Amino acid sequence: MSEQSQHIHFENTNRWSTKQLVTMALMCALGALFMYVQLPILPSAPFLTYDPSLVPAMVCGFAYGPGAGTVVAAMAIVIHALTTGDWVGALMNLVATLGYILPATIVYQKMHTYKGAVIGLVFGVIAATALSMVANLTIGVWFWYGSVDAIAPLMVPAVLPFNLIKTVLNSVLTLAVYKAVSNLITPKKNQVKGRA
Fold first, then answer.
1. Residue 125: is its pLDDT beyond 50?
2. Contact 178, 117 (CB under 8 A)
3. Helix crossing, 66-84 with 18-34: angle to 10°?
4. Can you give the pLDDT at residue 182?
5. Nearest alpha carbon to residue 154 among 54, 46, 52
6. Relative to the CA of 87, which of 75, 136, 173, 180 has its CA 20 to 30 Å away?
């Protein structure tokens, strides 16, 4: 072996550290498991059930950025679809989930404070609710309902309030969980002093 080759060293150029990747994998597994929690919220629409699966993805998004949150959310959805075979529901879920994760984490990245987290989550709630309605009227109609008439009467009394409640609950849980674990999973240079 030449003297030059003995001094060669490799540097990890990955955007995410090993600790971040391990945390993301754990959060992804948690998100996939949480999807099996099925809690009906509205008596008028018991088929619409709540699960806290978006919380781990949002925590990762706040800790590591929009890309990490998106990857964790998407992988959890794919894992669940592989085990249930429900690819239509997974696609609709992905649309709403991206609408929830991306605005919130992008805003938080710009305003790295508790206020920024709250503002980001508000944007996420609005975007996810709007996109879930769009997904029902497009993907849902194409693959499930057959016509707009089958779902349109349920949009305002069921789909709209359900998604508002679901995303608000996930937002409250995210704020509580992230505050508790942020300094354990967030890189030291990005840790926030104070409430968030």
1. yes
2. yes
3. 40
4. 75
5. 46
6. 173
Burial of 132 by CB count in 10 Å (0-12 exposed, 13-18 middle, 19+ buried)?
Answer: buried
Q: How far is CA 28 from the centre of its chain?
A: 10
Comparing CA positions, the residue from 30, 67, 65 lying closest to residue 51 is 30
Cα separation of 120 and 104, whole Å?
Answer: 4
- The letter for the amino acid at 173 is L
69 contacts: CB under 8 Å, gap ≥ 6: 57, 58, 60, 61, 62, 101, 102, 105
Q: Provide the 10 A C-beta neighbour count for residue 140.
A: 22
94, 70 Cβ separation under 8 angstroms: no
- Give the pair of three-digit tokens for residue 73: 């959310």
pLDDT at 135: 95
Q: What is the pLDDT of residues 48-102, one digit of tens each?
A: 899 999 999 999 999 999 999 999 999 999 999 999 999 999 999 999 999 999 9
Percent of the chain as helix, strand, coil, to the nearest 5 = 75, 0, 20
Amino acid type, 38: Q
DSSP 3-state assignment of 39?
strand
Burial readout 147-172 (b: 16 or more C-beta within 10 A, e: otherwise): eeeebeebeeebbebbbebbbebbbe
**Which one-letter amino acid corresponds to residue 196?**
A
